[in-house]
Amino acid sequence: MGFTIAIDGPAASGKGTISRQLAEFYGYAHLDTGLLYRAVGKKMLDGVEPIEAAHSLRAEDLDGDALRTPAVAQAASKVAVIPEVRQALLDFQRAFARRSGGAVLDGRDIGTVICPDADVKLFVTASPEVRAGRRHAELVERGMDVDYDTVLSDVRERDARDMGRADAPLRPAEDALQIDTSEMTIEDAVSAARAAIDAKR
Ligand code: CDP
Ligand code: CDP
To answer: Recorded E.C. number(s) (predicted)?
Structure first.
């Protein structure tokens, strides 16, 4: 079994960017598990029953800008509350984590539920205002007409739903290293993560 890195945190904390850079640096495979929930959320918006959607997910459902919208993000956090949806996505994530060449997975429950035995666990945070600012900038960059206050209330609503659900709520694993990126550059956050990883490899 290869080295496994589990990275969790709330929306726009920087976990995806950090995960991609770590995967590239160490030559590991990367899975953005949020895409699985976004794909199920998108199918729900298209009229498919969420549990059925989770069971019939295919690779081609996982890419495309259609998953990167605020409406799909909200739908993702709604389907993520359903235990049968989470269960349907479990085996794929665990198999990915066990890849022999090493793997980085990022999401909400990687260190707590998907990979409780991960070699390194990180919990990436930032204040809601900083995260909303980052997500707002990204959406504007992609040509979407959204205002900061709407993005902030979306982020807060999703945080509350993700932390408040009974099954696999968003919370740091006891053995996770917490990295608050509110006032950190991506480079600094990646350096902090690399120091923790290099100490375990
Ligand atoms: O994956 P997650 O939703 O946690 O966040 P992300 O997609 O990695 O980051 C959201 C945005 O914040 C991206 O545009 C990053 O470039 C930016 N970011 C930043 O400005 N400073 C950081 N320390 C981390 C991320
Ligand atoms: O990129 P961002 O952090 O905004 O969201 P995401 O990682 O794409 O996740 C979208 C939604 O999927 C989250 O708000 C969670 O409700 C759900 N999710 C989850 O429940 N468990 C995961 N491992 C990943 C995402």
So the answer is: 2.7.4.25
Confidence band of 193 (pLDDT split at 50, 70, 90): very high
CA of 111 to the centre of ligand 1 (A): 20
How would you write the chain as a 3-class SS string?
CCCEEEEECCCCCCHHHHHHHHHHHHCCEEEECHHHHHHHHHHHHCCCCHHHHHHCCCHHHHCCHHHCCHHHHHHHHHHCCCHHHHHHHHHHHHHHHCCCCCEEEEECCHHHHHCCCCCEEEEEECCHHHHHHHHHHHHHHCCCCCCHHHHHHHHHHHHHHHHHCCCCCCCCCCCCEEEECCCCCHHHHHHHHHHHHHCCC
Nearest CA to ligand 1 atom 3: 12
pTM metric for this prediction: 0.98
Q: Is the CB of 107 under 6 A from ligand 1?
A: no
Q: How many domains does the chain have?
A: 1
Q: Is 121 annotated as a binding residue?
A: no
182 is an annotated ligand-binding site residue: no
Q: At 69, which CATH number? A: 3.40.50.300
Residue 70 belongs to domain spanning:
4-200
How high is the mean pLDDT of the chain? Answer: 97
Atom 18 (ligand 1) nearest CA: 14
